[in-house]
Design a protein that fits this description.
By secondary structure, the chain is of the alpha+beta class. It has eight helices and eight strands. The protein has a domain at 9-165: GAF domain (Beta-Lactamase). 38% of the residues lie in helices and 17% in strands. A hairpin with a 5-residue loop joins strand 5 and strand 6. Helix 2 packs antiparallel against helix 5 and helix 7 (217-223) packs across helix 8. 24% of the residues are buried.
Length: 244
């Protein structure tokens, strides 16, 4: 049975994209978690599965050769529909999965336990799951440990995301700290590609700073003298910039 699609699916997929994790090489920090999950739950297969639009992709896998499968046959696509662990002790007795190709064919799933990987914003990105080729149950200790390991997967994902954002911010700061070619007359700035743009446009491109516009005292006197006489006449409101 094909899993339903979450109401917030578009936002969920965008959240997944922000981690820049899909189709990246294996990493020890994730492989250690799947190895521990397989050992503690005493199963031959453990996966960190990220549920994409049309597929489930495995960031880490123990006991399985394939890198991804279709989302249509994904157990994990069912798991992300809820916030808690999904346990299927015997797939042959579950109408959702009895005819699933992953049950009737390779890898011959008979037992599945998956914990959703919930982002800090509340979006289910995928699962940490364990699989066996024979019916099985997990004890309370194994369930709690699997849930704890799933939280550690999210911690690793967050560390990667924050590190990437920090690196990008530092790169922008380094650029801003360098010499910037600026026009002596109109004060436009030239980019590395040779294009000229306003100071506002340049800064907004390389930072998260926004702009609001006003008129300084000197320009008020030059361009709007009548208004300046009124606004700047009182000592407490005057902030006239002296001529250089």
């Amino acid at each position: 049975m094909k899993a339903q699609i979450l109401a917030q699916e578009k936002a969920r997929l965008e959240a997944l994209r922000q981690y820049n994790i899909l189709d990246t090489p294996p990493e020890h920090s994730y492989d250690d978690i799947t190895s521990l999950a397989a050992f503690i739950c005493d199963v031959p297969i453990a996966l960190i599965s990220l549920v994409d639009a049309e597929r489930q992709w495995f960031k880490s896998r123990v006991g399985l050769a394939v890198q991804e499968t279709s989302r249509d046959v994904s157990f994990c696509a069912h798991t992300i529909l809820d916030s808690g662990i999904m346990l299927v002790n015997d797939t042959s007795c579950d109408e959702r999965f009895a005819d699933n190709p992953l049950v009737t064919g390779e890898p011959g799933i008979r037992f599945y336990a998956g914990v959703p990987l919930i982002s800090p914003e509340g979006y289910p990105l995928g699962t940490l799951c364990v699989i066996d080729r024979k019916p099985k149950t997990l004890n309370n200790h194994q369930v709690k440990t699997l849930e704890a390991l799933a939280r550690q997967v999210v911690v690793q994902l967050e560390l990667k995301r924050v590190s990437s954002q920090l690196a990008a911010a530092l790169e922008k700061m380094e650029l801003m700290a360098g010499l910037i070619p600026i026009c002596s007359y109109c004060k436009c700035i030239r980019s590395d590609q040779g294009y000229w743009s306003t100071v506002e446009a340049f800064i907004q491109e390389y930072s998260d700073v926004g702009f609001t516009h006003g008129v300084c005292d000197r320009c008020m006197q030059q361009h709007f003298p009548e208004v300046a006489d009124i606004l700047l006449s009182a000592p407490e409101t005057s902030g006239i910039i002296p001529d250089q």
